[in-house]
Specification:
Blueprint (H helix, E strand, L loop, with lengths): L1 H19 L2 E9 L7 E4 H4 L15 E5 L8 E3 L5 E4 L6 H4 L10 E9 L5 E10 L12 E7 L7 E3 L13 E7 L5 E7 L5 E7 L10 E10 L6 E11 L7 E2 L3 E7 L7 E4 L2 E2 L10 E4 L5 H6 E3 L5 E4 L10 E9 L6 E10 L7 E6 L7 E5 L7 E8 L9 E5 L5 E5 L4 E6 L10 E10 L6 E11 L7 E2 L3 E7 L6 E5 L2 E2 L9 E5 L7 E3 L5 E4 L10 E10 L6 E11 L7 E2 L3 E7 L9 E2 L2 E2 L9 E5 L6 E3 L5 E4 L10 E10 L6 E11 L7 E4 L6 E4 L8 E4 L1 E3 L9 E8 L5 E3 L5 E4 L9 E11 L7 E10 L6 H13 L14 H31 L3 H8 L14 H5 L12 E3 L12 E5 L27 H6 L64 E5 L3 H7 L5 E3 L7
Parallel strand pairs: 1-7, 8-14, 16-23, 25-31, 33-40, 42-49, 51-58, 60-61
Antiparallel strand pairs: 2-5, 3-6, 4-5, 6-7, 9-12, 10-13, 11-12, 13-14, 15-18, 17-21, 19-22, 20-21, 22-23, 24-26, 26-29, 27-30, 28-29, 30-31, 32-35, 34-38, 36-39, 37-38, 39-40, 41-44, 43-47, 45-48, 46-47, 48-49, 50-53, 52-56, 54-57, 55-56, 57-58, 59-60, 61-62
Helix pairs in contact: 6-10
Subcellular location: Cell membrane
Pfam family, one: Protocadherin
GO molecular function, one term: calcium ion binding
């Protein structure tokens, strides 16, 4: 019961091992001598492998026949379908299973691997080789000689040599037949305990040697196959004299054991036979039966006299574990004695284990090539270990001798799968010599080793690596095209094509560089200019030739070194500076800016004035030009010299620029009206005048120059009906629209003329009287109307709808003369009184007065005003606005503070100060100089001389008929401390509205008489348009 339980447990464990290892067995039967391409079986169907889930496989299912290198397999298998076919190699059972006992089965075994590794299975296929009747039975010799005593009794039996047939079963020896027995002899067949059929000759008649001593017959042997095969031998029977006793063995069966390592000559056994006869009939002769195998006859020696069996040649249990020795003892008679000696060769541990390597991955020149990307458990070979010894001497273990990324996994008895146990890395180990060791359990144990070579195939699993991931280099500018800059190198841990590296420029690489794809030499193919670009940053690529290729990149930084290849550059080839003649010594004229595209010392520029020039100096670093002289425009209007800029390079470079300093005047003259010369003139405009017709032209002049003398005209007062417009440039007054009856009469226009001077614009105004009527019949009346429009504003317009009659005019003239005479007398009296009472200090002040002419506003001084000098300057008075409360008045009221006086000299002037701000349009913009990206430091130019003078626009003028005005007096003088800033002076436009209140200052005589400053206000209401 315990034995059965142990056997059951062992069987279960073996089945588990086989199942877990993915191993299976399959048996097929095949007849020997089958032709080629005969289908034996289908593994895919027979093992139900079609039921394996079709998961994603690295490759299609494959059946690979695993066999020993050098062997020629008897079958082949279709790798894709698993179908098994015979090959052209002959299947010969007798050769394949030679030495196997007659009744034993003959098997042929192969292993089949099912790939890929995801579904790996190892299948052991056992082919049972069926025997066919392909061999005829044969007698040991073609002539069989036998001796029979003449006194043999009837039915006596004599053994004949048995025939041998390599076939088995029914195909073996089945029958013997005696041919031409002559009725004396017969033949019978008996079966031995071993299953052999032995022929026996039977005596059927009495023999008489004297009558016939020899009988010749034939013996035929047949097998049971289909078709039957047979052979014959000649049987020659000799009739001998009577021999009454036969030899007899002491033991008919003897079994002995002898170790296989017994030396030659060792006694195996001693046979003993006796014979009751005497003399020659009692002499016994020992010999081996013809049924003894040739191997046994070769290994053992039988002493034919003594019957001693000794070892003739070394025994080998593995070759044959036992031997049957049929020994015959004969006294010369026909009936020899028979004894069977069974020799068992006992095992000794004399055989080392054998290692049989059957490759699953076909080797190349004896070496397995395995990709480094091979997954875990990749099957390499089937290792079969055997030991011809028996029992524990034949029990073998197999292992590897050192640590390798491979392992042996048991599948069948004494069979192991060699597979990968970890990832392979070509870069760390390129080749493995796997030493397989097999050791038996004998004492002492014997072992065997075998070497299996595995080469790791390189895969492109390593990208190139730059020796420097960041490459920084410098190159002087102005290099020759084709200059080699550096050699870029990278390494690749792979081998072969996978380690062949090509170098490429990245897409961001500029066209100035080239990279040799084979050597990695970086070249500047163009001339580099640091001033255009100082640094180049781009990527380079290293790509191997693997499939697919791998690449990596590195950054290259090329710095272009400066050379002194650029001369200093002035911002202008020629500089024009405009300075006022009032600029003091050592003031600031202007700034010279110089740039040098080079770097460092090569860009450090020093400025100097060429030739000997003591009039000006220049700061060598900042470029500020200062005068060493005082300017006088009347003596010299401009100065010209050259400035040199030189850098500090080892071989210095320089350049020059021309500098012109222009001395300019200031805007210190106001415009002077030439036409009309005074406020008391008028111009006749016919009512029939067409619109857009020029009815009058205002002309003013300015003693300044340039833009300071450019004038602009505008109507700033009067013209209440908007009947007239003025051209701001030419001064032409144009009729805007057709005159109607309501437009007849005197129209007063306040015209302003202002210059475009900088920094302050100056202006002047004048009254233009336009008389709209068909004709002028009484000019004196018109002048009187003009005068009254200025001195006596009225609430109604002065209209002249029709020409007055001569009698009416005469009366008016007489009245005017009388009134004028009375007025003159009164004025003279008042003046005389004032002079008499004038204080001494007023007299001194009167003497300090400038030359002026006091006149009364009457028609008689018109001639003098009309002939005023052209350089007459008109000073302005302030104009105050006021609204009338008279609801019946159609016009508006305006109050004029009118000091009516003329002076031959200019009355209000503006101080230019020290500000050189008047430049021509093409002169350099100093503000741009300050903002330029000049390598020189920025600096602030401070004024050398502050502006202390303050100029007043309004002065007291003698009473005259000229209206003057000034806007924003507080803004007309500059207190700016920056000589380059422009003073703000703005003027508001003054509008005149009717009625007008004119405040006339008292004449000097009245002020002297009253000892106080007195202003008499004369209210004049004038109807104006």
């Amino acid at each position: 019961m315990d034995l059965l339980s142990g056997t059951y447990i062992f069987a279960v464990l073996l089945a588990c091992v086989v199942f877990q290892s993915g191993a299976q067995e399959k048996n097929y039967t095949v007849r020997e001598e089958m032709p080629e391409n005969v289908l034996i079986g289908d593994l895919l169907k027979d093992l139900n492998l079609s039921l394996i889930p079709h998961k994603s496989l690295t490759s299609p299912m494959q059946f690979k026949l695993v066999y020993k290198t050098g062997d020629v397999p008897l079958i082949r298998i279709e790798e894709g379908s698993g179908e098994i076919f015979t090959t052209g190699v002959r299947i010969d059972r007798e050769k394949l299973c030679a030495g196997i006992l007659v009744d034993a089965h003959c098997f042929y075994e192969v292993e089949v691997a099912v790939l890929p590794d995801e579904i790996f299975r190892l299948i052991k296929i056992r082919f049972l080789i069926e025997d066919i009747n392909d061999n005829a039975p044969l007698f040991p010799t073609t002539v069989i000689n036998i001796s029979i005593p003449e006194n043999s009794a009837i039915n006596s039996r004599y053994a004949l040599p048995a025939a041998i047939d390599p076939d088995v079963g029914i195909n073996g020896v089945q029958n013997y037949q005696l041919i031409k027995g002559q009725g004396v002899f017969g033949l019978d067949v008996i079966e031995t305990p071993e299953g052999q059929k032995m022929p026996q000759l039977i005596v059927q008649k009495e023999l008489d040697r004297e009558e016939k001593d020899t009988y010749v017959m034939k013996v035929k042997v047949e097998d049971g196959g289909f078709p039957r095969r047979s052979s014959t031998a000649i049987l020659q029977v000799s009739v001998a004299d009577t021999n009454d006793n036969h030899p007899v063995f002491k033991e008919n069966e003897i079994e002995v054991s002898i170790p296989e390592n017994a030396p030659v000559g060792t006694s195996v056994t001693q046979l003993h036979a006796t014979d009751a006869d005497i003399g020659e009939n009692a002499r016994i002769h020992f010999f081996f039966s013809n049924l003894v195998s040739n191997m046994a006859k070769r290994l053992f020696h039988l002493n034919d006299t003594t019957g001693l069996i000794t070892i003739k040649e070394p025994l080998d249990r593995e070759e044959s574990p036992n031997h049957k020795l049929l020994v015959l003892a004969s006294d010369g008679g026909s009936m020899p004695a028979r004894a069977m000696v069974l020799v068992n060769v006992t095992d000794v541990n004399d055989n080392v284990p054998s290692i049989d390597i059957r490759y699953i991955i076909n080797p190349i020149n004896g070496t397995v090539v395995l990709s480094e990307n091979a997954p875990f458990n990749t099957k390499i070979a089937l290792i079969t270990v055997t030991d011809k010894d028996a029992d524990h001497n034949g029990r073998v273990t197999c292992f590897t001798d050192h640590e390798v990324p491979f392992r042996l996994r048991p599948v069948f008895s004494n069979q192991f799968l060699l597979e990968t146990a970890s990832h392979l890395d070509y870069e760390s180990t390129r080749e493995y010599a796997i030493k397989l060791l097999a050791a038996d359990a004998g004492k002492p144990p014997l072992n065997q080793s075998s070497m299996l070579l595995v080469k790791v195939k390189d895969e492109n699993d390593n990208a190139p690596v730059f020796t420097q991931p960041f490459i920084s280099l410098s190159v002087p500018e102005n290099n020759s095209p084709g200059t080699q800059l550096t050699k870029i190198s990278a390494t690749d841990a792979d081998s072969g094509r996978n380690a062949e590296i090509s170098y490429l420029l990245g897409v961001d690489a500029p066209s100035e560089f080239d990279l040799d794809h084979r050597t990695g030499i970086l070249t500047a193919v163009k001339k580099l200019d640091r001033e255009k670009q100082e640094k180049y940053s781009f990527t380079v690529l290293a790509k191997d030739n693997g499939i697919p290729p791998l690449m990596t990149n590195a950054t290259v930084l090329v710095t272009v070194l400066d050379q002194n290849d650029n001369s200093p550059v002035f911002t202008h080839n020629e500089y024009n500076f405009y300075v006022p003649e009032s600029l003091p010594r050592h003031g600031t004229v202007g700034l010279i800016t110089v740039t040098d595209l080079d770097y460092g010392e090569n860009s450090a520029v020093t400025l100097s004035i060429l030739d000997v020039n003591d009039d000006f100096s220049i700061d060598p670093q900042t470029g500020v030009i200062r005068p060493n002289i005082s300017f006088d425009r009347e003596k010299q209007e401009s100065y010209t010299f050259h400035v040199k800029a030189e850098d500090a390079g080892r071989v210095s470079r320089s350049s020059t620029a021309k500098v012109t300093i222009n001395v300019v005047d200031v805007n210190d003259n106001k415009p002077v009206f030439v036409v009309p010369p005074t406020n008391y003139t008028y111009e006749l405009v016919l009512p029939s005048t067409n619109p857009e017709t020029v009815v009058f032209k205002v002309v003013a002049v300015d003693n300044d120059t340039g833009t300071n003398a450019e004038l602009r005209y505008s109507i700033v007062g009067g013209n209440t009906k908007g009947l007239f417009i003025i051209d701001e440039t030419t001064g032409n007054i144009t009729l805007k629209e057709k005159c109607v009856a309501a437009d007849l009469g005197l129209h007063r226009l306040v015209v302003k003329a202002n210059d475009l001077g900088q920094p302050d614009s100056l202006f002047n105004i004048i009254i233009v009287n336009l008389f709209v009527n068909e004709s002028v019949t009484n000019a004196t009346l018109i002048y009187e109307l003009v005068r009254k429009s200025i001195e006596n504003p009225e609430t109604e317009n002065i209209e002249t709808t029709q020409a007055p009659s001569p009698s009416t005019d005469y009366v008016k003239i007489m009245v005017a003369i009388v009134a004028g005479t009375i007025t003159v007398v009164l004025v003279l009296l008042i003046a005389a009184v004032v002079r008499c009472r004038q204080s001494p200090h007023l007299k001194a002040a009167q003497k300090n007065k400038q030359n002026s002419e006091w006149v009364t506003p009457n028609p008689e001084n018109r001639q003098m005003i009309m002939h005023a000098p052209k350089n007459l300057l008109l000073n302005f008075v302030t104009i105050e606005e006021a609204k009338t409360d008279d609801a019946d008045t159609d016009g508006n009221s305006i109050t004029l503070d009118l000091p009516i006086e003329l002076e031959d000299q200019a009355m209000g002037t503006y101080s230019w100060g020290t500000t050189p701000t008047t430049f021509k349009p093409d002169s350099p913009d100093l503000a741009q100089h300050y903002k330029s990206a000049s390598p020189q430091p920025a600096f602030q130019i401070q004024p050398e001389t502050p502006l202390n003078s303050k100029h007043h626009i309004i002065q007291e003028l003698p009473l005259d008929n000229t209206f003057v005005a000034c806007d924003s007096i507080s803004k007309c003088s500059s207190s700016s401390s920056d000589p380059y800033s422009v003073s703000e002076c703005s003027y508001s436009v003054t509008t005149f509205k009717a009625p007008v209140s004119v405040h006339v200052r008292p004449v000097e005589r009245e002020r002297e008489r009253e000892k106080i400053i007195f202003c008499r206000i004369i209210q004049i209401d004038i109807w104006i348009h």
